[in-house]
Amino acid sequence: MSAPAVEITGLVKRFGSVTAVDGVDLRLPRGALLALLGPNGAGKTTTVEICEGFVRPDAGTVRVLGLDPARESGALRPRIGVMPQGGGAYPGVRAEEMLRLVATCAARPLDPAWLLDVLGLGSARRIPFKRLSGGQQQRLSLACALVGRPELVFLDEPTSGMDPQARRLVWELLGALRADGVSVLLTTHLMEEAEALADTVVIVDNGKVIAQGSPTSLTAEQADAAQLRFRARSGLDTQLLAAALPEGYLVRESAPGAYRVEGLVDPQVVSTVTAWCAQHGVLAEEMHVGRRDLEEVFLELTGRELRT
Ligand SMILES: Nc1ncnc2c1ncn2[C@@H]1O[C@H](COP(=O)(O)OP(=O)(O)OP(=O)(O)O)[C@@H](O)[C@H]1O
Questions:
Q1: Topology versus the membrane, per the UniProt entry (predicted)?
Q2: In 3-state terms, what secondary structure has residue 190?
Q3: 51 phi and psi angles, rounded to 5 deg
Q4: 165 and 104 Cβ atoms separated by less than 8 Å
Q5: Is 41 in the pocket of ligand 1 (CB under 6 A)?
Q6: 120 CB under 6 A from ligand 1?
Q7: What are the tens digits of pLDDT across the range 198-254?
């Protein structure tokens, strides 16, 4: 039986007094997609760079396609694709030139011209890297990670800076890769991305895994986890609304004009919220009772304060 795509046990990495990775365990089976989530500075990139063989761990075991990336990088490199955070290339190199250069390192590369077309870069093939837009640079960087037909790809925030059309294109491409049996480990700050793509989500904070599971299991629909959500003009007095509900209910304005009522949602609660809105001349739109989304679970686990 072949080894898992990635298997990490007790991984630790320190930079001076900072413990960037503090005992991480994770496993990515072959052909699956794992999304690593966490606030800024949580240790995601460091974990990925250790798997890629670019950073040496201080403790723990890492096996990538059954190999030790620190000691067997020569054997590993041709089998993996890497898209680093923010990409990068020689500023003057043209898009197609760069992809062809990367393709020469692979035994059985994909056709670079075809891949540029798939990623919507056909008309940009002669443009120097520095003149590509941020989203085009990201797509080129993804093309470089994929051109060698890797068995496993590491993608560090692959769709950051992409417009919604490009993001959807990349999601489709990642779905197709997975259907072809390619394993994918990606980091992202987009909960929608993790929810749409991942078999397993691993949430890290301060270098530690604080939750993992499928998106559905993490947002499991339990009676007390359900929420009432609605939209209305921003700036409603959420404390006043909470006071109209039985003790223990919380009301939050999670984004301007987006409200969440937390606590056991029953018909009486829905009726109280609707009546309160009517009394205060508030039109409650898009009222919805359902499970928490991944973003809500993430904020609950990692807190709402901004990381510095
Ligand atoms: N080469 C380095 N030297 C010193 N400190 C580092 C180095 N690389 C990372 N760190 C520190 O390690 C911690 C984890 O950083 P890392 O880049 O892994 O986080 P991240 O989860 O990828 O964050 P982001 O979401 O912002 O990309 C941070 O405190 C960071 O400042």
A1: Peripheral membrane protein
A2: coil
A3: -65, -35
A4: no
A5: yes
A6: no
A7: 999 999 999 999 999 999 888 875 545 678 999 999 999 999 999 999 998 999 998
Local structure of 191: helix, strand or coil: helix
44 within ligand 1 shell (Cβ under 6 A): yes
Q: Whose CA is nearest to atom 30 of ligand 1?
A: 41
Kindly report the protein residue whose alpha carbon is nearest to atom 16 of ligand 1: 43
| Cβ-contact 194, 188 below 8 angstroms | yes
Does residue 183 contact residue 32 with C-beta atoms inside 8 Å? Answer: yes
Dist. CA 177–CA 75, nearest whole Å: 22
Contacts of 74 (CB under 8 A, 6+ apart): none
How far apart, in whole angstroms, are the C-alpha atoms of residue 183 and residue 5? Answer: 7
All CATH 3.40.50.300 domain ranges of the chain, comma separated, are: 6-218
Q: What pTM did the predictor assign?
A: 0.86
- Identify the burial level of 19 via C-beta atoms within 10 angstroms of its C-beta, where 0-12 means exposed, 13-18 middle and 19 or more buried: middle
ipTM exceeds 0.95, yes or no? yes
Q: 172: buried, middle or exposed (CB in 10 Å: 19+, 13-18, 0-12)?
A: exposed
Q: How far is the CA of 273 from the centre of ligand 1 (A)?
A: 43
Nearest to 42 by CA among 213, 161, 171, 211: 211
The string of pLDDT tens digits covering residues 250-282 is 999 988 999 999 888 899 999 999 999 999 999
Q: What kind of architecture, by CATH, is found in domain 223-292?
A: 2-Layer Sandwich (3.30)
The first and second tokens of residue 28, run together, are 């990515």
Beta bridge partners of 186: 35, 155
Q: Where in the chain is the domain with CATH 3.30.70?
A: 223-292
Query: 302-306, long-range: CB within 8 Å, 24+ apart, which pairs?
Result: 302/38, 302/39, 302/42, 302/203, 302/205, 302/210
